[in-house]
Design goal:
Layout: H1 4-10, H2 17-29, E1 33-39, H3 41-46, E2 55-62, E3 71-78, H4 88-104, E4 108-114, H5 118-126, E5 130-135, E6 140-146, H6 149-158
Parallel strand pairs: 3-4
Antiparallel strand pairs: 1-2, 2-3, 4-6, 5-6
Length: about 180
């Protein structure tokens, strides 16, 4: 990730393309991480361009609290600026939350967002998350959603149009070494 704006918004370090692929490979093998790649389906379904040219971001779910396996930390990144504010982040977040609830037994979600990232904070609040903490040292806000029966029904209703398909491993681009 080379964009200074994205690094600031996501509290990330710059990564080379090879480092990005290595990180994705490690996440695929980790039982405590789940990643969905966000695609522009109009571009992807027409196959007018390569798969990687259809990517606009990703959504991640981290299951890192060994004492509470029902808690998932969720994060969303829409990397392509022209796709922000168009509903891609909201839809991808809802799909990941639905997947977490249905397949992983998640009943609580947390999102840690930089205080200046007002668009993300607003989006999560629209998805019924509530602010539970502010960390002035890291300049981030923690938002939380406890998935009650009513929230579960609402979430599944929001994603009832989604068809889940099996993961198919794609070939790496030329020049990227598999380890």
């Amino acid at each position: 990730m080379q964009s200074e704006e994205l690094q600031r918004l996501t509290a990330s370090e710059p990564l080379s393309l090879e480092q990005e692929y290595e990180m994705q490979r490690s996440w695929q093998d980790d039982a405590d991480k789940c990643t969905f790649i966000v695609l522009d389906t109009e571009r992807w379904s027409g196959q007018a361009c390569a798969d990687e040219d259809c990517m606009v971001g990703d959504v991640n779910l981290f299951l890192t609290d060994a004492e509470d396996p029902t808690l998932g930390e969720i994060e969303i990144m829409i990397a392509e600026p022209s796709y922000r504010g168009r509903g891609f982040g909201k839809e991808a977040t809802l799909m990941m939350m639905s997947y977490g609830v249905r397949n992983l037994g998640i009943t609580k979600f947390e999102a840690k967002i930089g205080q200046e990232n007002e668009a993300s904070i607003c989006m999560f609040k629209k998805l019924h998350f509530k602010e539970v903490a502010v960390n002035s040292v890291f300049q981030e806000v923690t938002l939380r959603l406890d998935v009650s029966d009513q929230e579960r029904r609402w979430l599944l209703e929001q994603t009832n149009h989604v068809e889940e398909k099996s993961y198919v491993e794609l070939k790496l681009p030329a020049g990227v070494l598999e380890t």
